[in-house]
């Protein structure tokens, strides 16, 4: 069945690094400085806090994992917590890496007795040749299965191997045990995908099966609700926004939001009267590294920590979900949208960073797929070198331009832009280059290299 292609982004850091499992192992990263907070979910009557809360909030939230259906407890020698679609495991031996919270291989568990069925039988190795020229299908020799169309899109844009593991079946029709409805499904090492045509074109077109609830029932886990603890607060509505499941997330445990206020002051503490330590502007990305409860602002007492001593009210932040790139490339590459004015860094299909840009006036920024040709750490840009003589319209002379990465001859580059006020980023203000604020330009300098793909489009 050809599934509808859709857009979705989520970066989940819950991965298993054991070689025998065949899982993708992302590079280790320091744990983000998330502040302790305990939330209570009245929908199921359970709490979520600590490392499990951090993982749930930053790696997919409600859309990927569902509500908590148990309190944390010890099982199989680990502290675990059950969710509708997953079970979290706390691994203190991996503290300070992306593996401190792992997700149980529930896809493997629930299909253990079904591997003899036709959909689970591995395809022959020559399948790789049959599908290599099909951009809508990929073959995984590790498990002998393919992934295509809508499920492929969802898998790629929600983390892929990093989130779900390899496919362990082909697509087939199956009765949903909760609803009794027949859906097109596919199993992965950690999940079951279900295609819901009744939700076509919405956030819910592809949903994950409730494997966590099924596993809890099989293990006779107590899922009865508990009273709200004195040190907990009801989960704010903004934190269950389904768009957080598609927001850009970084390798070091941050998740990106976008500013909705024209101008937003960054405070030294989660209070409106705390000293101002910075300013950001509408549509600018902010890397959220913690969540705390502070002074109530416009109906919410949740504040986001952007770093030590840097807080903004969540009332003015929404999930930053970038536009779908026209294509996906291997390795480190960057997608530049001249419609959204965001440059999004990708590691394969995983978006790991986002920055707001300036672009060329009057269509001067070229569109297409380019590669970084050469790089200059610090230079003087003189328009005379690209055919614009001194005194002519459009002439410029700029010293100390930082982190320049040229992708097209004629002077087209990604580079730091210190002469445009930050409040004016997010528009056409340049002579053709893709301008970044210097901290962002430095980040991209360290991420890209000669040969890296630069995709630019509207």
Automatic annotation (TrEMBL):
The keyword Cell inner membrane does not apply. GO terms for biological process: cell wall organization; peptidoglycan-protein cross-linking; regulation of cell shape. The active site is at 415 (proton donor/acceptor), 433 (nucleophile). This is L,D-transpeptidase family protein. It holds the Pfam family YkuD. Pathway: Cell wall biogenesis; peptidoglycan biosynthesis. PANTHER family: L,D-TRANSPEPTIDASE, L,D-TRANSPEPTIDASE YCIB-RELATED. Belongs to the YkuD family. One of its GO terms (molecular function) is peptidoglycan L,D-transpeptidase activity. The lineage of its organism: Bacteria, Pseudomonadati, Thermomicrobiota, Thermomicrobia, Thermomicrobiales. Keywords: Cell shape, Cell wall biogenesis/degradation, Peptidoglycan synthesis, Transferase. SUPFAM superfamilies: L,D-transpeptidase catalytic domain-like. GO terms for cellular component: extracellular region. CDD domains: YkuD_like. InterPro entries: LD-transpeptidase (IPR050979), LD_TPept_cat_dom (IPR005490), Transpep_catalytic_dom (IPR038063). Residues 332-457 form the L,D-TPase catalytic domain.
